[in-house]
Amino acid sequence: MSDHPQRCGFAALIGAPNAGKSTLLNALVGAKVSIVSRKVQTTRALVRGIALDGDAQIIFVDTPGIFAPKRRLDRAMVTTAWSGAGDADAVALLIDAGRGVDDEVEGILAKLADVRKPKILVINKIDVVKKEKLLELAAAINEKVRFDETFMISALRQHGVEAFRHKLSELMPKGPWLYPEDQISDAPLRSLAAEITREKIFERLHDELPYQITVETEQWKEMPDGSARLEQTIYVTRDAHKKIVIGEQGQMLKSIGMSARKDIAEAAETKIHLFLFVKVRENWIDDPERYREMGLEFPKN
Predict the structure, then answer these.
(1) Start-end of H helices in the chain
(2) For residue 9, is it left (φ>0), alpha (ψ between -120 and 50) or beta?
């Protein structure tokens, strides 16, 4: 700590699905606070990661990917994403360099022009595109919306991430830190544990299940030896999906559990005993209670 006044604020990461927001958030924080998968719309609610840069505490908000909503859950996710941008002190738009500006990005740019906050353009996955194309893409986007600064990064390889974080720290308003300096997320461990298990499901069953699948941590019990016993339920919408998650002789569920247990133990910094159950919950997508549990506002129309 120095004698300079502390700064603290919120920085929203927005973009189309699979732009790399969750990977970038984890790189900025230096630990897993948001799950990552190849499946679009993996992030559903606002996930906050906390990082320090000099005298600034930056609370990063990883938002759901912004896309053209078709269903109730889609509308809830997109509304949540824009609310995160509207409440932040700075907004960073993440663009997939290989994908460029498509219809979804065009829609985000059109709405972003009305956001009266410092805006930063972040072009991600630069290792897959030639430099000339990157410069052309940056110039084209800045013609559509005026950004305060443009960064070219690789979130996966952490190239350019530190410079981007430092710029955001400069944009944070003066004020006391909201969290202890060793805290990296405001998400309860039981919520992060459920998200980790959902990530492992998507890793193994990417194209076989709809993204409506959800996981809930039903029990987190501290054991006398310092370990923790977790019971989680994986909810699917059809019996056929239940069979896929369990797999032949339970092998798929066992594989998911072994992988999830390892990451949860790392996050919790203790030994984990994980027990997974699979149940069918039909039409949960129309249940307001499920949305509240995910931190989403239930769209009434």
Answers:
(1) 21-29, 72-87, 103-112, 131-144, 161-171, 189-204, 239-246, 251-268, 288-293
(2) beta
Where along the chain do its domains lie?
7-171, 189-293
Q: How many CB atoms lie within 10 A of CB 286?
A: 12
Q: For residue 52, is pLDDT > 80?
A: yes
Determine the topology of domain 7-171 in CATH.
Answer: Rossmann fold (3.40.50)
What is the pTM for the complete model shown? 0.69
pLDDT at position 43, please?
A: 47
For the ranges 31-45, 99-113, 145-159, 193-207, the lowest mean pLDDT is seen at: 31-45
Residue 296 has pLDDT above 70, yes or no: no
Q: Which two tokens stand for residue 26?
A: 């984890």
Quickly list H helices, 116-250.
131-144, 161-171, 189-204, 239-246
**For residues 213 and 105, what is the distance between their CA atoms, to the nearest angstrom?**
26
Q: Do domains 7-171 and 189-293 have the same CATH topology?
A: no
How far does the chain reach from its first CA to its final CA, in angstroms?
50
Tokens of 193: 């544990």
Give the count of beta carbons closer than 10 Å to the beta carbon of residue 174. Answer: 12
d(CA 243, CA 100): 38
pLDDT at 277 exceeding the cut of 80? yes
Per-residue pLDDT at 40 exceeds 60: no
Distance CA 274, CA 149 (A): 45
Domain boundaries 189-293, corresponding CATH code: 3.30.300.20
Q: How far apart are alpha carbons 301 and 294 in whole angstroms?
A: 19
